[in-house]
């Protein structure tokens, strides 16, 4: 219960092809995160899975059954919409409870589940409000709560935490992880947040322009990206790409993550000038303009004082550079 | 705390209101007010003489007037009840069906169902008289086809049926109006909300009751009050189908026809604008009462949702 | 410049006659005057005319309903006094009575035509069934029974849906024989008779007996239905007004005849309703009063009468000068003027001016009586009660 | 939405109901149109059958075409209807916007005032209106009709439109305000397009009584030059003789233009706006 | 041009008091970021500044003039709504151009500015689409573009980047910073993203439950939070709070940021067991259950392998602990 197979799914809106042949297998109970640039088709794919959108071709199989003709209600899913899509006329409580009531769940059970969900999402004070009287983050939490109370076999989350503050986001993320463990439900989760993707996922699917670029575990993607796109997309600040020719390498492009560069005032591989320094508290991002490597980003743990204009030497950690061919593929 | 600066005068409100208010006041309100005030006068020897509420006393005190008035009012209430119970639910049902996504031939259905509404009363009256006429046999013939011929009676000519039959004809004619309004309202519900409901397992009828209906409630309020106003002002259908005397035996007389006879006269009866205006004032007050109940009690309580 | 006269009328039916015959005839004789005949739907006419007169946009010439409707306009000053109009002398006092003040001093419309009630029958049907034209009531009902027994034809084409058929072609048609025409009518106005008197209830009693002879579902049968029923040959007898002649001539594919309302016993005096129905007056506010008067004088002339009566068989001239008519059926109707006594409809003069309106109530009650929803006595009582509520004879 | 959201039985059910009602709605109309092509005997002896060679007759249409300038009448009707419609929609929407958008003193009373017109038949004001038109020399002009119909249509338009305008998202209008749009631009560029479905609805409701009205053309503009179709058609309604062929033909003809206008407006409904602006 | 003073602004929705007296001064050209938990009143405050919401009391002064009576259109502001509030019937291009057209800007200039904004936001391919045909992130970018083209003296951004992917977010953030420099406009920016707050802000305003907790520069807040709330809110993962009594300290609570803890397998201040390890690629978060300090988070730069159940010692960096009194205030 909860397995999902997507076979060669394509979707076009008129002439615009948005999904260009997606193949994916999700086993029961897996936590799959979709990441990809804005507009790459993540929401569309979720909507196809949910049955809200017909795919132009291809099949979606849930629990071994082709669901093309199964209405969303019968697919045993719950979805958190990117646009929330709350029922404007119902209170928070009823927004969450409506689906259960429809399914004939006893009132006591409904109350219990709403209680759990609303405490998990810190929504208790707002149970009697209507969506129009909530803040953006509160609405988003109601949308999550509405999906969570239904305890389906398959969850579809479309950027569910984007409007929450850091603390709440961490909490909610942990709650979702716990929910996943408790219900053993399959979860498909779209996010733009690297931390969420890395911490929650059993498997990350990197989408780009309607195609899957790579599927793999979080650290797998981080450590062995299949191509330049994935390498650049996973990790923030993004990987530095340096023209191989400039470094005298055979590969078309050489990649080094900002966190795999060390700086030294006196000596190092690449000499550069500090262009800008971003102080994030826990770390510092330095933007260096290097003679050899061009503009690169260096991420340093902790506070690091560097005045723009200062000269610094950056050195890649040995064994932590990536090599990409002319086709963008990683050269092993 | 310093006093807040005063908000500048919002001229645009005036600009938005002015054209409507001017045209409407000059061509509708002033003439009608002029007419209604006739109810306080009486024509004595070709002179309009002020008599206060005397006309109303006549209207309610003189059985020659009051019997007709109460009869018309009673009939009108029945006329209204039928519309509320038949026209509006069917209109909502049709709109709900029409608005289902990707329904084939929706445009055809919509147009077809609306066709009666665009017909003139002359055609409606003629067509239904023809159909219901026992002589030419359309209705008896059709009923024969389904084996119900024995149930046929000349409905329009029988006191006990005529009003109901006419109400139903009127329903037939005007069903397009609630349908269109509700349809427009249903279309404005955001698709995502419906999609969320689909995912939540709220489909079909319960989706309608639990999601769509509450969201279109203001429109239902509007059609109810429009039906009320329209029915208590109705005139033409009865007039073309049953004549100004609203036969048989005044059984289809409603306020509109009653008012028409009094105001403009009929056949040998000479129009009496003063009594007519008194009746019109009463009608006006009845409708105004209804509209006020709606505006101040219902409308303010209806929740509206912005999409 | 030419003067253009507009005629207000409810007679849309007559549009072609005016356009093709009457107006050319007038304009030929009166160069410089143009006439436009502008009819409106009969049901809207009174209301529309009233509004236009009040606002001052009505036409120069106004077609007059008989009695109070026009009298009211005259009292309001909308109609000009035509007592002195050249040509008025062509009409008898009886003819003018419908458009005069109660004291008879001022006339305000030129009488145009009257209509006569009776029964038109399908001659072919009568011949086929071997029925003689009835002259007494017993014969009349015997004939109806025979037609009914035969079953080919609906005995009598009349419906009660439109109400006025029952009153005008029923009650007012057969009534004069009971209340003795003018005698009864005058007595009623004077208050010497009541509508509950025997001679006024009796016509209702006869009407109540008509019911079995009417077509199926006559309650919902409209006036055009009745006309069609008869002219399409499905009914044998049609209680009629003479105005039907023109239409029936063009529509019926069989031979027709007519008989006056049957009397009780052979040899009784017969009474017919010969009702002054239509006149024409001058809008007091007309800017072309002179031209309009010229026109009215022409309307009062025998010339007009001849054209009009022949163009519209069944609308009989009120002009004193005899008019020669071509139509046999029309001749039949008008011939009754010689053997029977004429009267006008009982509810029109004076009695039709109050509320509740006696004429309108008579429509409703006649239909009720035929439908069987009111007994003749109850109907008569309602009418009398209504009349009593406002009409105090002698005052 | 997707195919899967539709269930077959439900679709069949919907079609069954709609089809049934369509038949009910169209049957009398088809009866009328069918019979307009028949002779009088054909109409009344077999009203149910379509015209057969025996009963087929264009007499009605011939009479209509021969009697008066019907093309011209059509033109008048069209001008009056379209012009009145334009003003009703424009002025009505403006007033409705003022009422629904701004809180000001007397707002509700103004709403009530503007609704008074639907509570009394405007016919009762005929004399005063006619006097007004006589005084301003507008009798027998189409302008008079347009003015009256504009006034007559306004209350309903304001009533309906203000309800629908309340549903337009405040955030959206506010976004416009922040964008520096004037109230007028907000009305014309943002709100009007968004309430287009209800505008179309109001247009249809307003159009029909105007097109079918007999009374005001009769009173205000009965002249040959300004006659409307409905007024032209009433020629065939006589006192004792009704020319059913001609009436049916004239009215069948008169259905067409309104039907076309209706189709035009109802398209606006479909092209109504899909949501997606507001998150 | 562009200075803003908020004096004791209060706002209540019915009985709910949402802003409880806000005082704030923003000088011309400053970049101010509002942060605070979901529902604390950030959007409401922005709406009051914009003039979309009347404050219950208090004044808003823009450029020295009390604007209480000035309609939003006259305040010279541009705003990005949290709900986007795009015009659904207009294309992306017209969505952006409408305000300029109203202002009578010449068509060529409008085109030029739309060109700049859309290339800055990577919106060129979508200029002719309507909002309904865009993905969530694309819509959000249109909302930004609509504000940006107007080049006003005061920008109000309500979580403008929440639905963008990491790369685009970094880009757009840089573009906004550039815009700020180029236009010298005042910007007020609501965000839940720590990186955005830290990198963009001249001044961060921390809001909580309708009150301002602290105002200061990014590093100032990070280094010297005024109270426990701010300390916990700034920085992610959040600061560890340890009961002072358990550590034998006089302060009620002791705070240590996760990045200021070092771990060692053999010795250290607090002995603990690894409960859970989050591998983010560039760093690793360890959750330790310590005998003395309770459950704490440790953030380690780079990849760190630690099996749950292993024993580790955590040691706070000297001088990097915070002390809070019973009232939550920082003890200096
Ligand atoms: N119309 C309203 N009626 C009642 N309460 C409201 C209304 N609008 C907002 N609120 C409440 O006011 C508080 C502040 O809302 P606001 O939108 O300003 O929060 P926010 O700081 O923007 O939050 P978020 O980060 O979630 O967007 C919230 O708790 C919300 O529930
Ligand atoms: N109705 C539509 N018509 C045409 N194009 C559309 C439509 N809906 C979406 N698109 C396009 O399809 C692409 C994928 O959209 P989708 O919403 O799946 O993106 P996404 O990956 O969810 O992006 P985001 O992270 O911004 O939400 C986008 O480029 C969008 O412009
Ligand atoms: Mg998306
Ligand atoms: Mg907010």
Automatic annotation (TrEMBL), chains A, E:
PROSITE patterns: ABC_TRANSPORTER_1, ABC_TRANSPORTER_2. InterPro entries: AAA+_ATPase (IPR003593), ABC_transporter-like_ATP-bd (IPR003439), ABC_transporter-like_CS (IPR017871), ABC_transpr_MalK-like (IPR015855), ABC_transpr_MalK/UgpC-like (IPR047641), Mo/tungstate-bd_C_term_dom (IPR008995), NA-bd_OB-fold (IPR012340), P-loop_NTPase (IPR027417). The keyword Transport applies. It comes from Mesorhizobium caraganae. Belongs to the ABC transporter superfamily. The lineage of its organism: Bacteria, Pseudomonadati, Pseudomonadota, Alphaproteobacteria, Hyphomicrobiales. Keywords: ATP-binding, Nucleotide-binding, Transport. The keyword Transmembrane helix does not apply. Residues 4-234 form the ABC transporter domain. Pfam families: ABC_tran, TOBE_2. This is ABC transporter ATP-binding protein. SUPFAM superfamilies: MOP-like, P-loop containing nucleoside triphosphate hydrolases.
From TrEMBL, chain B:
It is found in: Cell membrane. InterPro entries: ABC_transporter_permease, MetI-like, MetI-like_sf. It is a multi-pass membrane protein. Gene3D superfamilies: MetI-like. Keywords: Cell membrane, Membrane, Transmembrane, Transmembrane helix, Transport. Coiled coil: none annotated. Its main location: membrane. Pfam families: BPD_transp_1. The keyword Transmembrane helix applies. The keyword Transmembrane helix applies. The chain crosses the membrane at residues 12-33, 77-99, 111-131, 161-186, 215-235, 275-297. CDD domains: TM_PBP2. Residues 73-296 form the ABC transmembrane type-1 domain. PANTHER family: ABC TRANSPORTER PERMEASE PROTEIN, INNER MEMBRANE ABC TRANSPORTER PERMEASE PROTEIN YCJO. Belongs to the binding-protein-dependent transport system permease family. This is Sugar ABC transporter permease. It comes from Mesorhizobium caraganae. The lineage of its organism: Bacteria, Pseudomonadati, Pseudomonadota, Alphaproteobacteria, Hyphomicrobiales.
From TrEMBL, chain D:
It is a multi-pass membrane protein. It is found in: Cell membrane. It comes from the Bacteria. The chain crosses the membrane at residues 12-34, 78-99, 111-134, 146-165, 186-211, 244-265. Keywords: Cell membrane, Membrane, Transmembrane, Transmembrane helix, Transport. Residues 74-265 form the ABC transmembrane type-1 domain. Signal peptide: none annotated. Its main location: membrane. PANTHER family: ABC TRANSPORTER PERMEASE PROTEIN MG189-RELATED, ABC TRANSPORTER PERMEASE PROTEIN MG189-RELATED-RELATED. Belongs to the binding-protein-dependent transport system permease family. This is Carbohydrate ABC transporter permease. It comes from Mesorhizobium caraganae.
């Amino acid at each position: 219960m909860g397995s999902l197979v997507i076979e060669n799914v394509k979707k076009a809106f008129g002439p615009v092809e948005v999904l260009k042949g997606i193949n994916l297998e999700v086993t029961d109970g897996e936590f799959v995160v979709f990441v990809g640039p804005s507009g790459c088709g993540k929401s569309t794919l979720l909507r196809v899975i949910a049955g809200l959108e017909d795919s132009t071709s291809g099949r979606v199989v849930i629990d071994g059954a082709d669901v093309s003709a199964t209405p969303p209600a019968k697919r045993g899913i719950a979805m958190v919409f990117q646009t929330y899509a709350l029922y404007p006329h119902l209170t928070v409580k009823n927004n969450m409870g409506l689906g259960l009531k429809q399914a004939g769940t006893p009132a006591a059970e409904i109350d219990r589940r709403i209680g759990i969900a609303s405490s998990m999402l810190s929504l208790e004070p707002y149970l009697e409000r209507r969506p129009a009287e909530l803040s953006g983050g509160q609405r988003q939490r109601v949308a999550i709560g509405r999906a969570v109370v239904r305890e389906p076999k398959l969850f579809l989350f479309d950027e569910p935490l984007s409007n929450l503050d850091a603390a709440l986001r961490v909490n909610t993320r942990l709650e979702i992880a716990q929910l996943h463990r408790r219900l053993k439900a399959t979860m498909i989760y779209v996010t733009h947040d690297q931390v969420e993707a890395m911490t929650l996922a059993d498997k990350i699917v990197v989408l780009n322009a309607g195609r899957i670029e790579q599927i793999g575990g979080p650290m797998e993607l981080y450590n062995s990206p299949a191509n330049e796109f994935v390498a650049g997309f996973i990790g923030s600040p993004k990987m530095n790409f340096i023209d191989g020719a400039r470094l005298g390498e055979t590969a078309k492009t050489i990649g080094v993550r900002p966190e795999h560069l060390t700086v030294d005032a006196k000596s190092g591989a690449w000499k550069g000038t500090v262009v800008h320094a971003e102080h994030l508290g826990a770390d510092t991002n330095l933007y260096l303009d290097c003679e050899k490597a061009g503009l690169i980003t260096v991420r340093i743990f902790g506070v690091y004082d560097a005045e723009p204009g200062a000269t610094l030497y950056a050195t890649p950690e040995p064994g932590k550079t990536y090599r990409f061919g002319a086709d963008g593929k990683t050269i092993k | 705390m310093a006093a807040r600066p005063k908000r500048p005068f919002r001229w645009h409100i005036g600009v938005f209101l002015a054209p409507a208010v001017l045209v409407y006041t000059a061509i509708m309100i002033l003439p009608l007010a002029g007419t209604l005030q006739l109810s306080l006068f009486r024509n004595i020897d070709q002179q309009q003489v002020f008599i206060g509420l005397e006309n109303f006393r006549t209207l309610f005190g003189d059985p020659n007037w009051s019997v007709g008035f109460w009869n018309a009012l009673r009939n009108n209430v029945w006329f209204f009840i039928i519309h509320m119970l038949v026209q509006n639910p069917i209109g909502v049902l049709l709109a709900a069906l029409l608005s289902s996504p990707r329904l084939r031939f929706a445009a055809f259905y919509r147009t077809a169902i609306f066709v009666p509404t665009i017909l003139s009363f002359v055609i409606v009256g003629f067509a239904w008289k023809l159909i219901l006429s026992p002589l030419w046999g359309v209705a008896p013939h059709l009923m024969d086809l389904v084996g119900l011929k024995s149930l046929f009676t000349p409905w329009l000519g029988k006191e006990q049926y005529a009003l109901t039959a006419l109400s139903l004809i009127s329903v037939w004619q005007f069903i397009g109006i609630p349908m269109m309004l509700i349809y427009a309202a249903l279309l404005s519900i955001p698709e995502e909300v419906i999609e969320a409901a689909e995912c939540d397992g709220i489909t079909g009828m319960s989706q309608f009751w639990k999601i769509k209906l509450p969201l279109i409630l203001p429109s239902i309020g509007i059609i109810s009050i429009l039906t009320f106003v329209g029915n208590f002002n109705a005139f033409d259908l009865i007039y073309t189908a049953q004549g100004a005397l609203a036969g048989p035996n005044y059984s289809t007389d409603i306020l509109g026809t009653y008012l028409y006879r009094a105001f403009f006269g009929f056949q040998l009866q000479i129009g009496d604008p003063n009594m007519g205006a008194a009746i019109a004032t009463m009608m006006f007050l009845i409708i105004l009462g209804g509209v006020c109940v709606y505006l101040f009690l219902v409308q303010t309580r209806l929740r509206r949702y912005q999409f | 410049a030419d003067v253009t006269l507009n005629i207000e009328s409810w007679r849309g039916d007559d549009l072609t006659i005016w356009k093709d015959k009457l107006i050319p005839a007038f304009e030929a004789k009166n160069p410089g005057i143009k006439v436009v005949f502008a009819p409106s739907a009969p049901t809207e006419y009174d209301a529309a005319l009233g509004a236009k007169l009040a606002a001052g946009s009505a036409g120069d010439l106004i077609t007059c309903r008989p009695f109070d409707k026009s009298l009211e306009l005259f009292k309001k000053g909308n109609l000009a006094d035509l007592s002195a109009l050249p040509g008025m002398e062509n009409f008898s006092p009886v003819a003018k009575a419908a458009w005069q003040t109660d004291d008879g001093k001022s006339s305000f419309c030129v009488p145009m035509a009257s209509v006569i009630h009776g029964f038109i029958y399908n001659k072919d049907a009568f011949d086929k069934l071997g029925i003689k034209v009835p002259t007494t009531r017993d014969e009349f009902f015997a004939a109806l029974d025979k037609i009914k027994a035969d079953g080919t034809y609906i005995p009598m084409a009349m419906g009660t849906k439109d109400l006025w058929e029952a009153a005008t072609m029923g009650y007012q048609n057969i009534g004069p024989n009971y209340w003795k025409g003018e005698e009864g009518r005058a007595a009623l106005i004077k208050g010497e008779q009541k509508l509950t008197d025997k001679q006024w209830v009796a016509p209702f009693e006869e009407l109540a007996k008509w019911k079995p002879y009417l077509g199926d579902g006559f309650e919902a049968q409209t006036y055009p239905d009745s006309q069609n029923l008869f002219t399409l040959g499905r009914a044998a007898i049609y209680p009629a007004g003479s105005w039907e002649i023109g239409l029936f001539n063009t529509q019926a594919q069989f031979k027709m005849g007519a008989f006056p309302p049957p009397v009780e016993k052979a040899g009784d005096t017969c009474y017919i309703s010969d009702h002054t129905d239509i006149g024409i007056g001058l809008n007091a506010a007309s800017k072309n009063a002179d031209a309009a008067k010229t026109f009215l004088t022409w309307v009062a002339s025998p010339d007009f009468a001849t054209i009009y009566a022949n163009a519209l068989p069944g609308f009989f001239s009120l002009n004193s000068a005899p008019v020669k008519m071509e139509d046999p059926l029309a001749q039949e109707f008008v011939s009754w003027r010689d053997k029977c006594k004429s009267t006008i409809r009982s509810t029109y003069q004076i009695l039709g001016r109050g509320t509740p309106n006696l004429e309108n109530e008579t429509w409703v009650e006649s239909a009720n009586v035929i439908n069987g929803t009111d007994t003749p006595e109850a109907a008569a009582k309602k009418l009398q009660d209504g009349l009593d509520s406002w009409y105090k004879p002698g005052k | 939405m997707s195919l899967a959201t539709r269930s077959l039985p439900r679709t069949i059910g919907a079609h069954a109901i709609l089809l049934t009602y369509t038949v009910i709605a169209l049957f009398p109309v088809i009866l009328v149109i069918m019979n307009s092509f028949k002779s009088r005997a054909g109409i009344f002896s077999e009203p149910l059958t379509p015209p057969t060679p025996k009963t087929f007759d264009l007499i009605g249409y011939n009479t209509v075409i021969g009697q008066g300038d019907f093309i011209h009448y059509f033109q008048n009707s069209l001008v009056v209807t379209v012009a009145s419609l334009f003003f009703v929609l424009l002025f009505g929407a403006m007033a409705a916007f003022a009422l629904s958008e701004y809180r000001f003193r007397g707002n509700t009373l103004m709403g009530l005032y503007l609704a008074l017109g639907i509570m009394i038949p405007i016919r009762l004001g005929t004399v005063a209106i006619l006097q007004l038109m006589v005084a301003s020399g507008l009798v027998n002009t189409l302008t008079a009709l347009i003015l009256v119909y504009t006034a007559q249509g306004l209350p309903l338009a304001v009533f309906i439109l203000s309800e629908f305008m309340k549903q337009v998202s405040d955030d959206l209008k506010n976004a416009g305000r922040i964008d520096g749009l004037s109230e007028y631009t907000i009305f014309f560029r943002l709100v009007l397009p968004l309430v287009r479905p209800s505008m179309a609805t109001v247009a249809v409701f307003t159009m029909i009584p105007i097109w079918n009205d007999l009374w005001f053309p009769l009173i205000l503009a009965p002249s040959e030059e300004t006659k409307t179709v409905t007024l032209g058609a009433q020629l065939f309604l006589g006192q004792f003789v009704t020319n059913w062929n001609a009436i049916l033909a004239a009215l069948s003809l008169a259905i067409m233009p309104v039907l076309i206008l209706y189709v035009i407006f109802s398209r606006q409904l479909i092209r109504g706006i899909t949501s997606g602006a507001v998150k």
